[in-house]
C-alpha cells in the first residue's frame, strides 16, 4: 500500500485545496492530511485564519479524499509523522517548491502544481472589503502601528489625522499614507476604523466622536481615565453595532494567552498572589509623561499592563485597593505601587518612570508558581515551578515583531463579524481598568506631598 501525506491550513476550503487533495490521493492508496492548529498558524505568522480547526477538518473530510486526518501543531512534526505513519510520498503545492526537500531523507517529495487564481487569502479578501484604517495622532505609537499593520491582511492604513497639520503631513509622507488632514470631519469621510494614538486624556473624546461617526475604534491604553466614560463608550459602540477595543497589546499575544489558560486550568493550584511590574527610565524630562501634571506619571502610562494579569486572573471584584508612590515636584508619580486585596488572594502592580525595577510577573499558587521574566509583557517564555523542582517546566512561545499585529488581527476579525479575540480583553475588564485609573488619579490629587517623599 502506498501512503501519501500532505499538510495545510485549508481555511475557507476552496477548489485549489480540493484539486490538491484529489491529485495527492491519486498518487497512492491511502491519504493522510495534516491540518494546522490555530496556535501553530499564529506562531508562523498566519494570523487571519477564519475557520476553526474543527471546520477545517470537516471540510477536508467532506472532500472525500482523506483516509485519515491528523492535526499539525509544531515545527518538525512532518519528519515525525512521515516516520510514524510510514508515509511513502510527501505532497505539497508548488508554492512550496524546494522548501521541503529535506524530507527526501525520509520519503519521496512531490510538489504539485498549484491551482491558479484561488487561495484562502484571496477568499478572505473577497469575503470582506479591505478595512480602511485611519490613525488619530501621529506620535510614537502611531509610528509603531505602520510596520506591524503590514502583517495583517484585510486592512490598510489609509490616512492620518492630527490637529497640527505639519505633524500629520510629515507622518503621512514618511509612512506613505494616502492622505493626511487636520480636519476631523474630513478624516472620518475616508476611513472605516480608527486607531486612537493620542495622549490618554484625549482618548474619550476622540473615541466618542469616531463611534458617533460610525467608525470602529481601537483605542490606546488606558482607554479612558474614568469608569463612566468607558461605560458610555461601550454602550455607544453597542448601539451603533461597532467594534470598540482597548489596545493593551499583551492581552492579544499567544504567550500571554497560553500563560493565562495554564493558570486557569489549575497547574499551580489556587492563586494567592500576583505581582506585576513595568518600569522604564525616561530619557528626557521634557517628555509628556513627566510634564503633564494632571494625567502624566507612571501609573497612567504603564498601569494598564500590570492590571491586565491581575484583573484577568483574580477578577474585578477586589475588596480593597491602595496606592503608594514617589511623586515629582509637579505632582506626577515617578514610581507607584498599587495593592489589591481579594477574599483569598492579593496582588501588587508596580510602575516606574524614574525608578528601574525588574519587569517580571510572578503568580503564586497553592501548588506552585509561575515566573515570567522581564519583559513579561512581551511573553516569550515562562517557568512553572513546584516544591519538587524536578517537576519544573519551561514554556516558550512566539512573540512576533512588535506584537501589535495580534491586536490588529483580532480587531479586523471582530469587524468582519468573527469576535474570536473577544475573550482576550472584555468590556467589563476595560471598564475595571478605567475605574482603577480614576481611583488612582483621585487619590494622587487628594494626597499632597513634597517632592521625593513616599506617600501612602
Ligand atoms: N493549494 C493549491 N492551489 C491553491 C491553493 C492552495 O494547490 N490555489 C495547496 C497548497 O499549495 C497546499 C494546500 O493547498 O499544498 C493547502 O494550502 P493552504 O496554505 O491551506 O491554502 P492557501 O490557499 O495557499 O492559503 P493562504 O492563502 O492562506 O496561504
TrEMBL record:
InterPro entries, per database record: Cyt_trans-like, Gfo/Idh/MocA-like_OxRdtase_N, Gfo/Idh/MocA_domain, GFO_IDH_MocA-like_dom, NAD(P)-bd_dom_sf, Rossmann-like_a/b/a_fold
Domain Gfo/Idh/MocA-like oxidoreductase N-terminal, residue spans: 131-246
Protein name (database record): Adenylyltransferase/cytidyltransferase family protein
Domain GFO/IDH/MocA-like oxidoreductase: 258-370
Keywords tagged on the record: Nucleotidyltransferase, Oxidoreductase, Transferase
Species in which this protein is naturally found: Selenomonas caprae
Gene3D superfamilies reported for this sequence: Dihydrodipicolinate Reductase, domain 2, HUPs, NAD(P)-binding Rossmann-like Domain
Pfam families xrefs: CTP_transf_like, GFO_IDH_MocA, GFO_IDH_MocA_C3
Superkingdom of source: Bacteria
Family membership noted in the UniProt record: Belongs to the Gfo/Idh/MocA family.
Domain Cytidyltransferase-like: residue ranges: 5-124
GO MF terms held by the record: nucleotide binding; nucleotidyltransferase activity; oxidoreductase activity
Amino acid at each position: 500500500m502506498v501512503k501519501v501525506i500532505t499538510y495545510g491550513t485549508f481555511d475557507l476550503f476552496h477548489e485549489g485545496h480540493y484539486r490538491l487533495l484529489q491529485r495527492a490521493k491519486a498518487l497512492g492508496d491511502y491519504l493522510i492530511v495534516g491540518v494546522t492548529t490555530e496556535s501553530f498558524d499564529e506562531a508562523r505568522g498566519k494570523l487571519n485564519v477564519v475557520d476553526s480547526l474543527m471546520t477545517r477538518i470537516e471540510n477536508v473530510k467532506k472532500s472525500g479524499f482523506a483516509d485519515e486526518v491528523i492535526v499539525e501543531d509544531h515545527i518538525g512534526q512532518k519528519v515525525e509523522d512521515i516516520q510514524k505513519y510510514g508515509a511513502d510520498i510527501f505532497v505539497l503545492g508548488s508554492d512550496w517548491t524546494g522548501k521541503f526537500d529535506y524530507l527526501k531523507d525520509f520519503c519521496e517529495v512531490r510538489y504539485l502544481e498549484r491551482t491558479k487564481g484561488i487561495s484562502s487569502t484571496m477568499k478572505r479578501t473577497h469575503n470582506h472589503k479591505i478595512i480602511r484604517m485611519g490613525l488619530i495622532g501621529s506620535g510614537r505609537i502611531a509610528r509603531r502601528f505602520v510596520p506591524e499593520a503590514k502583517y495583517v491582511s484585510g486592512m490598510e492604513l489609509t490616512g492620518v489625522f492630527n490637529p497640527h497639520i505639519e505633524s500629520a503631513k510629515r507622518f503621512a509622507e514618511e509612512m506613505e499614507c494616502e492622505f493626511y488632514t487636520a480636519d476631523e470631519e474630513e478624516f472620518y469621510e475616508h476611513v472605516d476604523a480608527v486607531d486612537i494614538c493620542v495622549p490618554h486624556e484625549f482618548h474619550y473624546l476622540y473615541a466618542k466622536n469616531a463611534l458617533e461617526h460610525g467608525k470602529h475604534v481601537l483605542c490606546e491604553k488606558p482607554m479612558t481615565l474614568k469608569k463612566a466614560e468607558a461605560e458610555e463608550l461601550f454602550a455607544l459602540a453597542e448601539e451603533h453595532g461597532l467594534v470598540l477595543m482597548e489596545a493593551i497589546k499583551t492581552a492579544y499575544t499567544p504567550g500571554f494567552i497560553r500563560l493565562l489558560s495554564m493558570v486557569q486550568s489549575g497547574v499551580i493550584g489556587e492563586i494567592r498572589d500576583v505581582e506585576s511590574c513595568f518600569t522604564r527610565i525616561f530619557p528626557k524630562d521634557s517628555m509628556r509623561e513627566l510634564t503633564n501634571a494632571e494625567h502624566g506619571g507612571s501609573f497612567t502610562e504603564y498601569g494598564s499592563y500590570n492590571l491586565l494579569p491581575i484583573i484577568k486572573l483574580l477578577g474585578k471584584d477586589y475588596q480593597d485597593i491602595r496606592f503608594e508612590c514617589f511623586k515629582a515636584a509637579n505632582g506626577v508619580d515617578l514610581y507607584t505601587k498599587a495593592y489589591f486585596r481579594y477574599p483569598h488572594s492579593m496582588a501588587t502592580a508596580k510602575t516606574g518612570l524614574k525608578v528601574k525595577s525588574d519587569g517580571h510577573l510572578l503568580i503564586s499558587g497553592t501548588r506552585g508558581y509561575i515566573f515570567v521574566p522581564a519583559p513579561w509583557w512581551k511573553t516569550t517564555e515562562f517557568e512553572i515551578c513546584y516544591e519538587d523542582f524536578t517537576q519544573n517546566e519551561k514554556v516558550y512561545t512566539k512573540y512576533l515583531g512588535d506584537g501589535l499585529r495580534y491586536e490588529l488581527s483580532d480587531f479586523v476579525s471582530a469587524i468582519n463579524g468573527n469576535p474570536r479575540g473577544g475573550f482576550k480583553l472584555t468590556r467589563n475588564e476595560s471598564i475595571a481598568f478605567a475605574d482603577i485609573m480614576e481611583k488612582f488619579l483621585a487619590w494622587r490629587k487628594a494626597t499632597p506631598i513634597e517632592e521625593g517623599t513616599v506617600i501612602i
